[in-house]
Design goal:
Blueprint (H helix, E strand, L loop, with lengths): L3 E5 L4 E2 L2 E2 L1 H13 L4 E3 L12 H15 L4 E5 L5 H14 L3 E5 L8 H13 L5 E5 L1 H4 L5 H10 L3 E6 L4 H11 L4 E4 L5 H6 L4 E4 L6 H12 L3 H17 L7 H9 L16 H14 L4
Parallel strand pairs: 1-4, 1-10, 4-5, 5-6, 6-7, 7-8, 8-9, 9-10
Antiparallel strand pairs: 2-3
Helix pairs in contact: 1-2, 2-3, 3-4, 4-6, 6-7, 9-10, 10-12
Length: about 290
């Protein structure tokens, strides 16, 4: 079910409020770019600094706007299981195709706690659940053995956005779970080796601005055109790195603003990309052949 390129959508703001006009423009651009789906209210969407009302409204708007043309995986993560269940139920009611739920952050649960947390969320809804394992953000790592235990208990846990950066752990996850769990890369920088070890696709930051290019890499790989996929990936790699010169989504917001999609506005405690760093990022796009 889960394969291809999903865009981890930015949330455009204007004067402190969600800019739904800009959001629609971005969604149409993603659909035209050929992505499999979009992911509102993840890390790139600044989910920690939107209110619950905004969170639910953004998911509902995304579902209504794409109108079934691409899949919608709605962010529904929290370090409170009760809150994560609430967001998952709201996403299901809104018509999302699946939910993305991140490791609980700050409170550092044990593996038993993580299994219980994700099982509670999965059992509260009928739509598929995509796990999101990103220890660098959350402070906890959901181990492959624990993931296998979870999917044996919760059959609607069907995928994981894997962002540990540990290729050995990713291979162990594939070894244990096989085709029962689709692996989606949570890191643009390692897309090519990720596909090589059995990954099915990516939830991408860079595809906000270059959706068709990311789609092309995955499609070429799946068609067996390994050399062409590799060449395209290495052309994109400097841009992948550029998206993380400061904390995501600061750089991608700045690039999307330069491209005319939205304001560069981010919510505190994030701040807009400084001019010198923006110039460096734009220089990488210029080398790639894209100017704004």
């Amino acid at each position: 079910m889960f394969h291809g390129v999903y865009t981890a959508l930015i949330t455009p703001f204007k004067n402190g409020s969600v800019d739904y006009g800009a959001f629609d423009k971005i969604l149409e651009y993603q659909i035209k770019g050929g992505v499999t789906g979009v992911v509102p209210m993840g890390t790139t969407g600044e989910s920690p600094t939107v209110s619950y009302e905004e969170h639910v409204a953004i998911v509902r708007h995304a579902v209504k706007s794409v109108a079934g043309r691409v899949k919608v995986i709605a962010g529904a993560g929290s370090n409170s299981t009760k809150e994560a269940v609430f967001l998952a139920k709201m996403a299901e009611e809104a018509g999302a195709d699946a939910v993305l739920t991140v490791n609980p952050y700050y409170n550092k649960p044990t593996q038993r706690g993580l299994i219980a947390h994700f099982a509670e969320i999965a059992n509260s809804i009928k739509i598929p659940v995509v796990l999101y394992n990103i220890p660098s953000r959350t402070g906890v790592n959901f181990l492959p053995e624990s993931t296998k235990e979870l999917i044996d208990k919760a059959p609607n846990v069907l995928a994981m956005k894997e962002a540990t950066g540990d290729i050995i752990q990713m291979m162990r996850l594939r070894e244990l779970c096989g085709d029962s769990l689709a692996m989606l890369s949570g890191d643009d920088n390692i897309l090519l080796p990720f596909l090589a070890i059995g990954g099915k696709g990516i939830i991408s930051v860079l595809s906000n601005i270059l959706p068709s290019q990311l789609v092309s890499v995955v499609e070429k790989w799946n068609a067996g055109n390994v050399n062409a996929a590799r060449d395209e990936f290495y052309r994109l790699l400097p841009l992948c790195r550029a998206m993380f010169v400061e904390t995501n989504p600061i750089p991608i917001k700045a690039v999307m603003a330069k491209a005319g999609f939205c304001s560069p506005e981010v919510r505190l405690p994030l701040q807009e990309l400084p001019g010198d760093r923006l110039d460096a990022v734009l220089q990488e796009f210029k080398k790639f052949g894209v100017t704004f």
